[in-house]
Structures are given as structure tokens and as C-alpha cells.
Design brief:
mainly beta; 39-stranded mixed sheet; 5-stranded antiparallel sheet; 4 helices; 60 strands; 4% helix; elongated
């Protein structure tokens, strides 16, 4: 950003504050002092100057210089501690006259817009990441993060966000305001307790006090917490610490007690609050350990090389009353070890152990994000991690053990009459990286809207569904393995197998959705009922698109739903064994135009057996059909126009082509260009697509694709 004072503060505004005495076009941009004769203190006067033309005043790195920023965070001008005004200067060619763009003596000209990101003089090794370099003032570099907040680095490379100047109606200076409030007494946002059920109250939105330029350091010991470098935004009462404005806060030490709590109550207009954990162990015997009542967003940062453990109480006796950003009085009871009402991000390269003894481990009413190479271990009585609006995992090694609830959950929705409806962009679980291991008493991963897998490694062991979305599951990438007590992967609407490597090791129904779109990826599925089951919605038995005759495995003689399977790409192995099974089951139609599909009954199955499906031939090439399901069961047919299809078993309701050829486990069968070695032995091989006949195949010289369960597909 390059500007000068003519582009920012108007002449009339400067005259109004007595700052333009004797100013001409070629005068220095250092103006007369800002205090004037009004008796107003310097900080208030400078804030008024910033506000005069719509700018906002912020303290610079030295805690005394005031920077006047526009709505986009660009520096318009600054006011030095002595009251003189400095302005950014544009670089001009050496041959150009520079008298109309005066430079403030002692300041550094701003670099061009494409200048490299240069750390502040405090440290030459600070990593600004994706932040944008803005300007350099008094040898300190300032940056804008992706959320629009402006910050600089201290000597330890900690981000220090600019503190906004709040204009008071009194003449009391910021320093006097700070000294007049104690850590236990008259602070207007200090929670108080009453007898009986404990109720903490915050009657007003907190006022942001100026920072002293240092990161507050909160240390826990046997007696509670103590704070050094207090920036007037930290309140301490025993083990209770209340943070009331944006910035970085360092925490370390160990403490157990009913008041072992870090509470954040910061204006929504502030930038982020960073809770830097530098070796912290907190156990709260009565409530949550971290409780975010209000903030624009909060970052829990497990610093590199540190181990941090948070454990909450198994019961709740407290209720908290506070005023939210809309001025509404709210009463809360915390429901997790880390409990937030606003956006929460977990990051850092250290370790974080969270023990949710009461309900959830980590819970936010908005968005929950994981952004660092953090080692996170969460145990919870109910849900492990819940971001009501969103759970977005980009990095980290995350282990979740949820005793009775879901491992990862996002369930925001709206209510329309008696219906629950989707909120756009909410109720979503998105995984774009990391290593995640989930053990859950209910669903492993559950979302009201969508579940998206783009990358990462995910392992799920769940008592109910492994992965369940009440709308869609999109599997674009990553490696996912699932063991489930019910469905392995279940989408109430559409399941897209587009690029992930998926291994449903065991489930009742391996994959289930109204629509199953197999578009890419490599998958292996095993179910004790159905392998793939396309079902859901409603069916009208009186129409050609409705339900006709279905196998018992599809819900009885006549199914009560519709469902569709569309296969266009990828490599997919589907298997099932047990009584009354369907390996590939669609309560509507199934179509294949590409990809490779192998279906198998790898072990002996019972089944109903005996009889032909009504309206269908009972045999073809000594291959018989029955009403008991088996390899293929659709209500309205399975059409194959391309790709490779091979099926191995001893029963089916329908087939594209079939030969009554006995086969042996571990021996490859198919054609010279496409073959598979089945896991079990049987008496019937189905085929279709580019495979026009089947026989035993010598696979020497053929290439292979290995399914995630170790079985191989051979091709030329």
C-alpha cells in the first residue's frame, strides 16, 4: 500500500485538530503535535484524528505510536509519540522530483507491492506463512493474515495483533484505566458467582485495553495461575483465567481444581485469540477446561516439543450468564472439555490430550478446524469432536475414542415446520489431510449435510455406521478403512466413489446410498448382508420406475424403496457372505459403462434358494437364478455397456453372462486381458463388458492393480 497524506486525511480534518499550521505542498510530512489545547489526553486525541475521516486507530509495535488504518487494514498515516504525523511515501524514479511526496525523517520508505515478505527486526527467521506483507514502520514489518487482521512478530516470533484504541468519554488515560482495575474487583466483564448453582455473569461486552507490547505469560502452579506481562486483557482468580481481547497468550504449568478454567470473552470485532500451550496440564473438577463464550475465533496452539493435557469434570454444577455480540443475555452450561460458542482452530506441532469425562471432548457451536501437525488424542464419554457448523481437518495425527457417541460429528441444520433442512455450507465434515484413527460407540464420522474426503489417512472402528451422512459422501482422495457394526459407509442421498482408496473390512451392509456413483478410486467392500446396497427414497409399485420384485435381501418380496448404481470408472471389489445376502443390490437399476467391478461370495452362504425370479429365465448355460439374492439383485435390471465385470459365486438372481465353471480360490479366471483370482471357491462365474468369455488364465506378464484388502486384478 502506497499513499500520502493527501490521499488519506482531508485538509479540513487536520485544521480542525490544529495539525496543519504552516503546511504547504513542499513541507515535511511531520506535522505539529496532536495534543492541542483541549485538555484531551494524547491517545484519545489521536484516536479522534484517525476517526475523523473514517480511519481506525491502532497501537503500533512500540505501544505508543498510533497507526491510522482504513477499512481494509491499509496504513493511511501514523501519529508519533510526540504528536507529530508521519505518512507513507511512494517510491519515485531517481529522475523524478520528490518534493511533493515528503518523507518523515527516521522512517523507512515502503517497499513496492511485490516486495518479498521481510520479517521484523526482532527476528529474521519468523515465518509469515500465507500472510500478506503490508508495510514497514520504525524497522518493524506488519502483515495481514487471511482473516484480515494486522499483526507483527515479537522477538520470539509470536504474532502480536494490533490493539484498537477505544475512545473514552473521560480524560482518564489508558494507563490510568489499567491501574484503576484490579484482577479481582471492579472489572465490568469479570464473572461473579452466587450461592447455590454457581452462575458467572458478564453484563457488558468487554472494552479492549491497549497492549504493553509483550505476550502475556500465564503460569499454573499448586496455588493457581499467575500472569506476567499482563496486557490488561487477562483476569486471574485462583485457577480461573479470563481473556478479554485478541492476541497471543502463553500457558504452562499444572493445576487441578474446581476453577481450573481458561475462559475467552473477547469482542467479535477483534481478531483471533491464540491460546499457546507450552506444557500445560489442567484438570477441572467442576466444569470445562477451555470455555469460549465469545470471540471472532480462537486458536488452541500446542507448541512444538510440548505435551499438554486437559481433563474436565464428570458432572456440571455451574451455569454461566453473559452478553453475546448481539447484546443478548445467554445462559450456558458447558458440554465438553474444550467448549466454544465460536470458531475454534487446533494447531501447533506439539501434542494435545483432551479427556471429555462429562460429554464431548472438543465441541464448538460454529466451525472446528485442525491446521497444524498436531498430535491430538481425544477421549470422550459421548462425541469425540463436534463442530456443529463444520469440522475441517487439514493436518495432524488425530486419535479419537468416543465411548457412546460419534467420533467426529457436524450436525447444523435449520427447522422448517416439522422438517429439518440443510443450511448451506454447514453440517459438513471435510478431510484434506492428516492421519485419523477413530473408535466410536455410535457412528465413526457423522454429518447432517456432506462428508468430503480429499486426502489423508482415516481408520474407523464404529459400533454403528462407520461413515454416515444424511445427505452426501464424496470420496475424492485419501485412504480410508472401516470396520462397522452396521453400515460401513452410508449416504442417505448420494455416495460418490471418485478417487479414494477405500477398504470396508467388515460391516453388515458395506456401502449404502440412494445413489451410488462409482467414478474412480480403488475400493474393497465386505458385508454380512449386502456389499453395495442402493436403496432409499420411495417407490411406486404401479409404475415402471417403482419397485417390482426384489430379493429378500433387498427388503422382502417387494421392496419399498428405490435406489440406483451407476459405474463409470475405478476399480471395485465387492463381497458378502452369510444368509440372505446380496453382493450388488439395487432397489432400482444398476448400470456399468466403465471401470472394473469384481463381485464375489467368498464363503459358503445359506440363502433361501430354489426357484426362479418371476418373469425371468431360470437358467442360461447351466447357470441358475433364484429368489435368494446372491451376486446380483436389482429390481429393474443391471445393464453393462463397457468396462470389466467378473463375478464369482454359486447363486444369483440375475446376471449379464454366465458360465457354470467351477473355480478354485487363488487361481485367476477371466480373459487374456482381464482376470481375477477369487478369495473363495465356487461353481459359477459371471462376466460382462469387455470380457466376452471366461476361463482359467495364466497371469504371467500381466500388470496388476491391488485392492486395499490385498487381492489383485490382472490386466493387459
Amino acid at each position: 500500500m502506497k499513499t500520502n497524506i493527501k490521499k488519506g486525511l482531508t485538509i479540513s480534518s487536520l485544521i480542525a485538530f490544529g495539525l496543519l499550521a504552516g503546511c504547504s505542498d513542499d513541507s515535511s510530512s511531520v506535522q505539529s503535535p496532536a495534543t492541542g489545547d483541549s485538555g484531551t489526553d494524547s491517545a484519545e486525541a489521536t484516536a479522534n484524528i484517525c476517526n475523523a475521516d473514517g480511519y481506525t486507530g491502532f497501537y503500533a509495535a512500540d505501544g505508543a505510536t498510533v497507526m491510522c488504518l482504513d477499512a481494509s487494514g491499509n496504513l493511511a498515516f501514523w501519529i508519533n509519540p510526540d504528536g507529530t504525523i508521519g505518512t507513507p511515501v511512494e517510491e519515485v524514479p531517481a529522475s523524478s522530483a520528490a518534493t511533493d511526496i515528503p518523507q518523515d525523517p527516521g522512517t523507512t520508505p515502503l517497499p513496492p507491492e511485490d516486495a518479498p515478505v521481510i520479517p521484523s527486526s526482532a527476528s529474521t527467521t519468523c515465518d509469515a506463512g500465507t500472510a500478506t506483507f503490508l508495510y514497514k514502520l520504525a524497522n518493524v514489518s506488519y502483515y495481514r493474515d487471511t482473516d484480515g487482521a494486522t499483526f507483527f512478530f515479537d522477538s520470539d516470533c509470536n504474532k502480536q495483533f494490533l490493539t484498537e484504541i477505544v475512545v473514552s468519554s473521560s480524560s482518564e488515560t489508558p494507563a490510568e484505566k489499567a491501574s484503576s482495575s484490579s484482577t479481582t474487583g471492579d472489572n465490568p466483564y469479570k464473572p461473579t458467582s452466587s450461592a447455590g448453582t454457581e452462575t458467572s455473569s458478564a453484563s457488558v461486552v468487554p472494552v479492549v485495553e491497549p497492549s504493553n507490547g509483550n505476550t502475556p505469560v500465564i503460569t499454573y502452579a499448586a496455588s493457581g495461575a499467575s500472569v506476567a506481562n499482563n496486557n490488561n486483557c487477562v483476569e486471574v482468580n485462583g485457577g480461573e483465567v479470563v481473556i478479554t481481547c485478541a492476541g497471543d497468550y502463553d500457558f504452562s504449568g499444572s493445576y487441578t481444581g474446581n476453577d481450573a478454567q481458561i475462559r475467552v470473552y473477547s469482542p467479535k470485532s477483534d481478531s483471533g485469540v491464540y491460546l499457546n500451550l507450552r506444557g500445560l496440564t489442567l484438570t477441572n473438577n467442576a466444569d470445562a477446561v477451555i470455555y469460549v463464550q465469545m470471540a471472532s475465533k480462537v486458536f488452541v496452539v500446542a507448541k512444538a516439543g510440548t505435551e499438554n493435557t486437559l481433563s474436565d469434570a464428570s458432572t456440571r454444577t455451574k451455569a454461566f450468564t453473559y452478553v453475546n455480540a448481539n447484546g443478548e443475555t445467554k445462559v450456558d452450561t458447558t458440554g465438553a472439555c474444550i467448549y466454544a460458542k465460536d470458531d475454534l482452530t487446533i494447531k501447533g506441532e506439539g501434542s494435545l490430550t483432551v479427556k471429555g469425562n462429562y460429554n464431548n471432548g472438543i465441541h464448538t457451536s460454529n466451525d472446528l478446524r485442525f491446521r497444524g501437525e498436531t498430535t491430538v488424542n481425544v477421549t470422550a464419554k459421548n462425541h469425540g469432536m463436534k463442530g456443529k457448523g463444520l469440522v475441517d481437518i487439514e493436518k495432524g495425527t488425530i486419535t479419537v475414542k468416543a465411548t457412546s457417541g460419534d467420533g467426529i460429528k457436524s450436525d447444523e441444520y435449520a427447522v422448517n415446520g416439522n422438517d429439518t433442512v440443510i443450511v448451506e455450507g454447514k453440517g459438513i465434515v471435510s478431510i484434506t489431510g492428516g492421519t485419523i484413527d477413530i473408535t466410536a460407540g455410535d457412528d465413526g464420522i457423522q454429518a447432517f449435510n456432506n462428508i468430503i474426503f480429499d486426502a489423508g489417512t482415516v481408520k474407523v472402528n464404529a459400533s454403528n455406521d462407520g461413515i454416515h451422512s444424511e445427505q452426501n459422501v464424496q470420496m475424492n482422495g485419501g485412504t480410508i478403512s472401516v470396520t462397522a457394526g452396521d453400515d460401513g459407509i452410508h449416504a442417505d442421498s448420494a455416495l460418490h466413489l471418485a478417487g479414494s482408496t477405500v477398504n470396508v473390512e467388515k460391516a453388515v451392509e458395506g456401502m449404502e446410498a440412494f445413489y451410488i456413483f462409482a467414478e474412480g478410486g480403488i475400493t474393497a467392500t465386505y458385508g454380512t448382508d449386502d456389499g453395495w446396497n442402493a436403496a432409499g427414497g420411495s417407490a411406486d409399485p404401479g409404475t415402471s420406475s417403482g419397485s417390482q420384485w426384489g430379493g429378500f435381501g433387498g427388503g422382502g418380496m417387494q421392496s419399498s424403496s428405490k435406489g440406483y448404481i451407476v459405474i463409470t470408472g475405478g476399480y471395485h471389489y465387492i463381497s458378502a457372505s452369510g444368509n440372505d445376502i446380496d453382493v450388488l443390490d439395487a432397489n432400482g437399476t444398476a448400470k456399468q459403462s466403465g471401470g472394473v467391478v469384481i463381485v464375489e461370495i467368498p464363503a459358503s452362504s445359506g440363502g433361501m434358494g430354489g426357484g426362479s425370479r418371476p418373469g425371468q429365465s431360470g437358467s442360461s448355460g447351466s447357470c441358475s437364478t433364484n429368489m435368494a439374492g446372491g451376486l446380483i439383485d436389482t429390481d429393474n435390471g443391471f445393464t453393462i455397456t463397457g468396462g470389466v465385470f467378473l463375478g464369482f459365486g454359486s447363486q444369483t438372481e440375475e446376471y449379464p453372462n454366465c458360465t457354470a465353471t467351477s473355480y478354485t480360490a487363488g487361481t485367476a479366471y477371466g480373459s487374456a486381458s482381464a482376470a481375477f483370482a477369487p478369495k473363495g471357491s465356487g461353481s459359477m462365474i459371471l462376466y460382462g463388458g469387455s470380457v466376452t468369455s471366461v476361463a482359467q488364465v495364466n497371469t504371467s506378464g500381466m500388470q496388476t492393480v491391488e485392492f486395499p484388502n490385498g487381492l489383485k486384478y490382472y490386466y493387459k
